[in-house]
Every structure is written in structure tokens, then in C-alpha cells.
Specification:
By secondary structure, this protein is an alpha+beta fold. It has 21 helices and 16 strands. Among the domains are: 186 residues, no CATH class; 208 residues, Chitinase A, domain 3 (Roll), CATH 3.10.50.40. A four-stranded antiparallel beta sheet has the order 13-5-15-14. A four-stranded antiparallel beta sheet has the order 6-8-7-10, with helices on both faces. A three-stranded antiparallel beta sheet has the order 2-1-16.
């Protein structure tokens, strides 16, 4: 052969190179362990697991099987690319475990699965909630595509089975047809039947390993009953919140003497000085800037609710007219939490505001406030434009306001707790909740024989439109007479304040539920323990701390699940419980595997980046089911 190459010159050299390349290919292809996939330095991998390369074609195949609709929107929403790659990584780890335990799959098992029309793709098991959401979406997509019926899809989802039934039969003869099989494989995975079979073998091995982990999980009769009772024992409570804002408004501010405030400020001088330094920078007037106080209106508010909210704003305005800083009052009372944190400052531009607010704000001169409350779709606003010329006056107001506000807030905690304890004691002594609250509030209204109250003039809803400026009056003596007016008058005090203690009733909750919003984990535990260990009508021993005050709780009703109810639901309930416990067992197992192999898993992030939404308006239909391929 060498003499032949010498005789034929350059062309023979080329032929020789081809022959040598062919020989080299055979040597490599049929070397020992040739079936084990290895990676060259230039090989592209979606991920590497313990040195093995997950080929981009494998990733693409898994991705397509999980999402037969090819929906870019669905892919983004469920992060399917990440799911597909995590599923392949989990599959590799489970296959390693199966081999370690001596578990394998035979050629006959693979053939039987494919002949029966089942296709597998790994869905990550680490988070059962996510896995269930993905499976549900996947089976719905297969049902919508007509590949499976709704009933079959539901059955497979309930069994947490990732063996997707796909029809490989001839439509007429209803028997397995190789051409149909080849066409379906190509459509689903974009792989050859040989490549597809190899991948399905690995998926089947991983599925076997999942079954090994899940199968031993059982639920005893006692465990099932205890869980049934935990879920279906229910309780309803009445709760009576005492808010610190209400206590500060009507107890600590109304009854605090200057000497009380001065003494508290002296004891907390360092905190007050720090707060004052922050406030004076933040609350200093800025040229052209607007500040506001918002009292929100509930949707569809009645005239009485509007009156209460307008009165609440009136109280804030009265504080400002009495000499307190607008910024400090806004910080404490405004329902616009974003601007309230900045002392009500909303900047110097009004272009983005709703028309009524913009019109009222634009009309203000520096240092001026609106004549009354400006009504918009959000509620009632009281607006002021900053005046830098009054900086010295504002600084003095801030200095006076900060100490008093800090004192009021601190004292309000104790005041709210005392009122809550008073209500709790009265109910515990046999008084109804309504009467206990009424007496507690009345004691606040009449504390010291007199409390300033606010009278506000409230036009009926039909007489005004959004944007109307409504009159806001200052404080008047409890016995003073208002200026004669044809409009109805509402009196605002501790008993009519919207934040006053009121009876509220929870929905029915179980031992794992939340009695009502705003509770801390400890508070939830305390109330749940009380509700399921006490008698109807009993009141909790101590008021529960809330972020904005204290709450008294009374047990209204406790309903206990019965054995007869359990017997009716037992089969379905136990199946559901077993599924949940098996999901949990597999989740823990897979998370441990991933944690142990974390240093041996390398992911190429470019493969899991979802297609971004085109923000432009051009091209295409922009529909949900656009093909990403």
C-alpha cells in the first residue's frame, strides 16, 4: 500500500489520509467502554454531571416533551428550560443510584414501554409543589393537543406518573405502527428512534429508582385519623383589635401634659436627638415641593364611612393648625405610606397626578394649603406647597413635634394594652363583647371629664363630585355649638373613629390555618392552641401583640371532625395523604443527592435563559403559542 501511495503522488496521499481516518474512527468507536459518553475539550454540553456531558440534543428533546404546545409564554411562566435541565440532572443522579443498588432495565422493558405508547421526561422532584404544577400544565397541554384524553391526563397527574401516554397506533387498525411511531418521535423530541430509545432507557431507569424511594411509604390508620382531625377540626373566633394609632390619638395625646412629654424626652434624649436630626433634613421645605395627607376611602364607601374618613383627616388638620409640623402629621396619619415616610413629600411635578389633585396642587402658592379636603378616586387629600422662606419656622415646629410624637407612640403601646386588658376582663366576667368594648371606649371619651372633639360638615354624596373641596373644621369644645348650616353634622371622637375597637369575626380555620391577618407566627400558634383546647365563649388569657396594637380573642365555635365523617372520606383521603408523603420522601431523597453531588454538577446558563418578551410592536402575531423552534 505504501508503494501505491508513492506512485500516485498527491492524490494518493489524500486517499491514504481518508483510509487512516476511517481506521482511526473504527478503533475509537469499538474500543473498550466505547458506549460510555465522554467529552472532548470542544464538546458543547448543556450541563456536566460527574464528568458526563448532557448533550444539547438531550436537553432540547426533554424540553420539547415537557412542552408539546411549544408555548414561549408557558415556558417563561413556568421556567420550563430550567425545569428540563434540572430534570436531566436529577435523572443522571438517580441512574447512578440505581446502578449502585444493582437496579437496571432490560431491552424487553424498554420495548414494552414504547410499544404500549408511553414516553417519559424527568420533572424535578426537589420541590413537590413546583413538580405538581409542571405535571398539571404538561398533561393539560397534551390533552389540548389531542395526544391524550382529559380523563387519562387527570389519572396520570393524580398518580404523579411521568409516563406520558402517546398513541403510536395506526388510526385504522388500532395496532402499533412503526411509521406512526417514527413520526410521533420526531415531532415530540426531534430525535432519531435510536437516540430516542437510548434516552427513554435512562428515563425508565430513573423512574424505577423513584418508585424504589416512594414505594415503602405507608400511612397508618392512626396517622390518617390524626391528620384528618387536624384538617377538619375547625374553629371560629371573634377578635377585638385595639390599635396603637387610636390609643395615641385619644389617650396619650389627649391626656399627656407638657411635663409628661418633657420628662420622657429627657429620659430618651439620645434617641430624640437622632430622630430630630433625621427629621430636620427630611422635613426642611424645598422650593416648589408638595406635601399631602391622604385618608383612603373604602371602595363603594357609604356616607357614614365618608364622614368618618373626612373626620379623621380633620383631626390631622387640627394638629397642623395647632402648630405641629405638616410633615410629622403626614408621617403619622397619611395612608399614602410611600410619601408618608418622606413627610408627605410628593415632589414638585404634578403631571402624573389625577386631575382633581393636580388642579388643587397647581393653584397653591408657597406656604399655602388647600382650603379643605380634596376628594379624588383614592380618598381625601389635604395638600400643602413648601415655602423655603419659612424654613426657620418649620425647623422650630419639627423640634416641638418630634419629641411629642415619639412620646405619644411609646405611650400608646401601654395605653392600647390597658384598654385590651380592660375589654378582656369584662368579657371574662360575663359581659358581652359589644358592651365590653362600648364601656372601654366610653371611659376613654370621658377620661378627665372632657376630651376635645371634632365637628365636620359632610355634604351628602349626591351633592358633590370627586374633586370637590370639602370643609374641614378645627377642634371645638365638646359642648360647643357649630355654625348653623343646612348640611348634616358628624362628631368625631374616640367612639366614632374608624380605628376604634370593633368586633370582628374570623372565617372557620383548622389547626394548620391562620385565624386572621396580621398575626405573628407566635401569635398564630397561641390563638390556634387556645381555639382547639378551650370551650366556646371563653376568652384568651392575655391580649395578643399585633404589629399595630393588641387583640383580644374569644372562641365563638369549635367544630370537631367525627369518625363517621372520616369513614366516608377515608379511601380518598388516605390516597391523597400517601401521595403527599411519597412526594415528600422523594423530595428529601433527591435534595440529598443533589447536595452530595453539588461540586460535580456544572450547568451552562445559556441553555436555561428563557426567550425575552419583545417590547416592540412590530412583526408576528405575538400569540401565546409561538414556536420557539
Amino acid at each position: 500500500m505504501l508503494s501505491f501511495f508513492r506512485q500516485k503522488g498527491l492524490s494518493n496521499v489524500l486517499y491514504g489520509a481518508i483510509i487512516l481516518a476511517t481506521i482511526l474512527t473504527f478503533v475509537i468507536e469499538f474500543r473498550p467502554n466505547a458506549s460510555t459518553r465522554t467529552a472532548s475539550l470542544s464538546e458543547m454540553c448543556a450541563a456536566r454531571v460527574r464528568g458526563r456531558c448532557l448533550d444539547p440534543k438531550d436537553f432540547s428533546s426533554a424540553y420539547r416533551i415537557l412542552m408539546p404546545s411549544r408555548s414561549a409564554e408557558m415556558s417563561r411562566r413556568l421556567n420550563i428550560k430550567r425545569v428540563a435541565l434540572d430534570g436531566l440532572i436529577e435523572r443522571e443522579l438517580l441512574d447512578d443510584e440505581a446502578k449502585r443498588l444493582g437496579i437496571g432495565v432490560t431491552e424487553e422493558e424498554i420495548t414494552d414501554q414504547l410499544y404500549a405508547g408511553y414516553v417519559r421526561a424527568s420533572v424535578p422532584s426537589a420541590d413537590p409543589t413546583v413538580a405538581q404544577a409542571i405535571l398539571q400544565e404538561m398533561y393539560q397541554a397534551y390533552a389540548r393537543a389531542g395526544l391524550v384524553s382529559q380523563e387519562v391526563a387527570l389519572a396520570h397527574f393524580n398518580d404523579r406518573d411521568t409516563a406520558i401516554p402517546v398513541d403510536f397506533r395506526d388510526p385504522k387498525s388500532k395496532v402499533f405502527d412503526m411509521k406512526v411511531y417514527e413520526r410521533q418521535v420526531r415531532n415530540l423530541s426531534n430525535r432519531s428512534t435510536t437516540e430516542f430509545r437510548a434516552e427513554q432507557a435512562r428515563e425508565l431507569l430513573a423512574a424505577k429508582m423513584r418508585d424504589v424511594v416512594r414505594a415503602p411509604v405507608r400511612v397508618s390508620e392512626t396517622e390518617a385519623w390524626e391528620e384528618y382531625a387536624r384538617r377538619y377540626d375547625t374553629a371560629t373566633v371573634a377578635w377585638f383589635p385595639v390599635k396603637e394609632a387610636w390609643a395615641a390619638r385619644w389617650i396619650t395625646r389627649a391626656n399627656a401634659s407638657p411635663s409628661d412629654v418633657d420628662a420622657w424626652v429627657k429620659d430618651h434624649a439620645k434617641e430624640v436627638e437622632q430622630e430630630l436630626a433625621d427629621r430636620q433634613k427630611q422635613d426642611a421645605p424645598k422650593a416648589g415641593h408638595l406635601r399631602h395627607i391622604l385618608v383612603k376611602l373604602p371602595y363603594g364607601a357609604t356616607d357614614d364611612e365618608k364622614a368618618a374618613m373626612l373626620a379623621k383627616l380633620s383631626w390631622a388638620v387640627a394638629r397642623i393648625k395647632a402648630g405641629e409640623s405638616f410633615a410629622e402629621v403626614s408621617r403619622e396619619t397619611s395612608d399614602d405610606t410611600g410619601s408618608a415616610a418622606q413627610g408627605g413629600d410628593v415632589g414638585d411635578k404634578t403631571d402624573g397626578f389625577v386631575p382633581p389633585f393636580k388642579a388643587a396642587a397647581d393653584a397653591l402658592t408657597p406656604g399655602e394649603t388647600t382650603a379643605g379636603a380634596v376628594e379624588t378616586q383614592f380618598g381625601y387629600h389635604y395638600i400643602m406647597r413648601d415655602d423655603p422662606a419659612k424654613a426657620a419656622d418649620i425647623e422650630a415646629k419639627v423640634k416641638r413635634s418630634v419629641g411629642r410624637s415619639m412620646y405619644a407612640k411609646a405611650a400608646a403601646v401601654d395605653a392600647a394594652k390597658k384598654v385590651a386588658e380592660q375589654i378582656r376582663a369584662a368579657i371574662g366576667g360575663g359581659m358581652t363583647a359589644d358592651d365590653a368594648i362600648r364601656d372601654a371606649v366610653a371611659s376613654v371619651v370621658h377620661a378627665g371629664g372632657k376630651v376635645d372633639r371634632l365637628r365636620v360638615l359632610v355634604p351628602p354624596a349626591a351633592a358633590t363630585d370627586a374633586g370637590t373641596t370639602r370643609a374641614v373644621m378645627g377642634t371645638v369644645d365638646a359642648g360647643a355649638s357649630a355654625t348653623p348650616t343646612p348640611l348634616p353634622e358628624k362628631v368625631f371622637d374616640a367612639s366614632t373613629d374608624a380605628d376604634r375597637p370593633q368586633v370582628q369575626t374570623s372565617s372557620a380555620f383548622n389547626r394548620g390555618g391562620d385565624p386572621f391577618p396580621g398575626l405573628s407566627p407566635d401569635g398564630t400558634t397561641s390563638i390556634v392552641d387556645f381555639a382547639f383546647s378551650s370551650q366556646d365563649g371563653n376568652v384568651i388569657k392575655d391580649p395578643i401583640r399585633m404589629p399595630d396594637g393588641f387583640v383580644v380573642v374569644q372562641l365563638k365555635q369549635h367544630k370537631t371532625a367525627t369518625r363517621d365523617e372520616f369513614a366516608k372520606d377515608r379511601e380518598t383521603f388516605v390516597q391523597e395523604l400517601v401521595r403527599a408523603k411519597r412526594d415528600e420522601a422523594l423530595s428529601l431523597y433527591v435534595r440529598r443527592l443533589r447536595d452530595q453531588a453539588k461540586d460535580d454538577i456544572k450547568v451552562d446558563p445559556s441553555f436555561i435563559q428563557e426567550t425575552k418578551v419583545d417590547g416592540g410592536g412590530g412583526g408576528g402575531g405575538g400569540g401565546e403559542d409561538e414556536d420557539e423552534y
